[in-house]
Write a structure and sequence with these properties.
- The chain has 513 residues and is an alpha/beta fold.
- It folds into three domains: 60 residues, no CATH class; 136 residues, RNA methyltransferase domain (HRMD) like (Transcription Regulator spoIIAA, 2-Layer Sandwich), CATH 3.30.750; 218 residues, Vaccinia Virus protein VP39 (Rossmann fold, 3-Layer(aba) Sandwich), CATH 3.40.50.
- The protein has twelve helices and 20 strands.
- A hairpin with a 2-residue loop joins strand 6 and strand 7.
- Helix 4 crosses helix 5 and helix 9 packs antiparallel against helix 10.
- It is elongated, with a radius of gyration of 30 Å.
């Protein structure tokens, strides 16, 4: 297929991997695997293949820049390259790692867009996101249980994420709910469709029939180890108190498990799903971790963060790994749709004040629809909102204390108002940015992308590490009580009598001396 000049400019540099929905009319209704040709000035051409599926959030995806069409031979070669790149993660290669789970094929990173393959111990899981891969699913499953994988994989499960209607572009009015079907399509199935795997020596319970979420997101493999190192390198808490981790949107608690087992850290796990919290507890018991030493909350994450702020809690490390779209209740209590591309700043505004001195705030986003610059801007907006929130709370606290002091001294109302204005002026003159400051430490992407042609836009999982470099308890000393004029104080008959009695006692004591 010969493309228009506009599309040719996008594809000729071999860096554009996704095209938005607005480019669909140029393909005149064609769908499936579509070959394309981009002619060059020197009588040469750039050939490639596209996957066009209107049900995907990115309906046009580049498969490759080769003349070779998508076929069984092409798929076999792509899986072979992926295996050679990630063989080091399998237990057949290195048993010392104590890991039996890893991602074998990661969508466009391995030139197989809209499909991923995970390995959970003796079982493979094929995630299918486009209906046009259906004709090859049997062949892919056969490849996994034969040849080089025969000693590793005994059964293959298919998780069907395909949709019959187009996905809503984010932000959408309501989340699109669907049930990703999961069942065994090759080899033998697991007992009760449950298996146990290890990663970095930590055991995880995997439910192979649990639709899209089987129990462990393997693209976070190295990031879990980085979280462990961040918490390990922090100085000890005063009084040898255990280090603490807040795991928001915890799902099965993978970030909590590795620090609880290795560092004996205290973890707080929050998820709106009671089934997820039950799954977290099962994983804790599987690793022989005492449940009584950890906190589990079945609650909306936004509401839980509001409650933790009211409780004046603080954590050495906070992990935010929200779903791309979900129903939440904001700080006002209003139920709405949360999307990482539109509402991430609200999440940061609530989580940032909970970060302890020299602690870390690690935020993840799991979509290529939100580029790095927009996401960093959203995080910065959240930090500004958090700073304003701290400032407002300080002002309210100082106003309350000053009102109580002036009422106790009997200061008239008009002089109270002058003192409160002075407090507000003093708080506004403080440099809150330096009193509540985060430093950008690191930028993470998903691991195991071992191909030199991979671009940043393929790394749909991104993480930003922030470090709080100012004290958590920001205390501003209230201004000294002003020297009010004599008529600023209320006088009463009772107070005059008390003053006279005090003077008489003083005179008597003086005369006796």
């Amino acid at each position: 297929m010969i493309l228009s000049r506009g599309l040719q400019k996008l594809l000729v540099n071999r860096k554009t991997l996704y095209l938005d929905r607005g480019k669909l009319p140029a393909f005149k209704g064609r769908e499936g695997f579509v070959p394309f040709v981009v002619p060059l000035n020197n009588s040469q051409s750039v050939h490639g293949n596209l996957l066009i599926d209107r049900t995907l959030s990115s309906p046009i995806q580049v498969v490759n820049w080769e003349k070779t069409p998508v076929s069984e031979a092409y798929i076999e070669k792509a899986i072979k390259l992926a295996w050679e790149a990630r063989y080091k993660y399998s237990e057949l290669c290195d048993a010392s790692d104590s890991s039996t789970a890893f991602r074998l094929v990661n969508s466009s990173s391995d030139r197989l867009p809209a499909i991923s393959i995970d390995v959970y111990g003796k079982y493979g899981a094929i995630h299918l996101y486009s209906q046009f891969w259906n004709i090859y699913k049997g062949f892919i499953a056969k490849q996994l249980i034969q040849n080089r994988f025969s000693k590793l994989i005994e059964g293959v499960y298919l998780i069907d994420h395909t949709r019959s209607t187009p996905r809503h572009p984010l932000p959408c009015p309501t989340p699109v709910h669907y049930n990703a079907r999961s069942h065994c399509i090759a080899g033998r199935s697991a007992s009760k469709n449950v298996t146990v795997v290890q990663e970095h020596g930590i055991k995880y319970k995997i439910r192979l029939d649990n639709g899209p979420a089987l129990g462990l997101y393997l693209d976070q493999r190295q990031n879990r180890y980085k979280i462990l190192n961040l918490l390990r390198d922090l100085p000890d808490n005063p009084g040898n108190a255990p280090k603490s981790l807040l795991n928001a949107f915890c799902f099965t608690g993978s970030f909590s498990l590795i620090v609880a087992k290795t560092l004996n850290a205290f973890t707080t796990n929050i998820d709106a799903s009671s089934f997820a919290i039950h799954w977290v507890k099962e994983n804790f018991m599987l690793n022989e971790i005492e449940l009584a030493n950890h906190e589990f909350r079945i609650d909306d994450v936004f509401q839980a963060l509001v409650k933790l702020n009211r409780e004046k809690r603080s954590f050495n490390l906070i992990v935010l790994d929200p779903p791309t779209v979900s129903h939440v209740r904001l700080r006002t209590g209003q139920k709405t749709v949360f999307s990482t591309s539109e509402n991430y700043s609200d999440l940061i505004a609530l989580a940032a004040p909970l970060t302890a001195t020299n602690g870390y705030l690690v935020a993840f986003v799991n979509t290529h629809k939100l580029d790095k610059e927009r996401w960093q801007s959203a995080i910065q907006e959240g930090l500004v909102a958090a700073r304003q929130k701290v400032k407002t709370e300080l002002e309210e606290e100082m106003h309350t204390n000053m009102r109580h002091t002036m009422r106790k001294r009997g200061v008239k109302v008009k002089y109270r108002q002058r003192a409160l204005k002075r407090i507000k002026f003093e708080i506004n003159s403080r440099d809150m940015e330096n009193m509540f400051k985060f430093e950008w430490i690191d930028y993470w992407t998903q691991d195991a992308r071992d191909f030199p042609w991979i671009e940043d836009q393929l790394k749909y999982l991104h993480g930003i590490v922030l470090k709080r470099i100012t004290p958590f308890d920001v205390k501003i000393k209230p201004p000294k009580m002003p020297n009010f004029p004599v008529n600023a104080y209320h006088t009463s008959k009772q107070s005059r009598i008390k003053n006279l009695q005090l003077r008489e006692r003083q005179m008597q004591t003086k005369n006796q001396v």
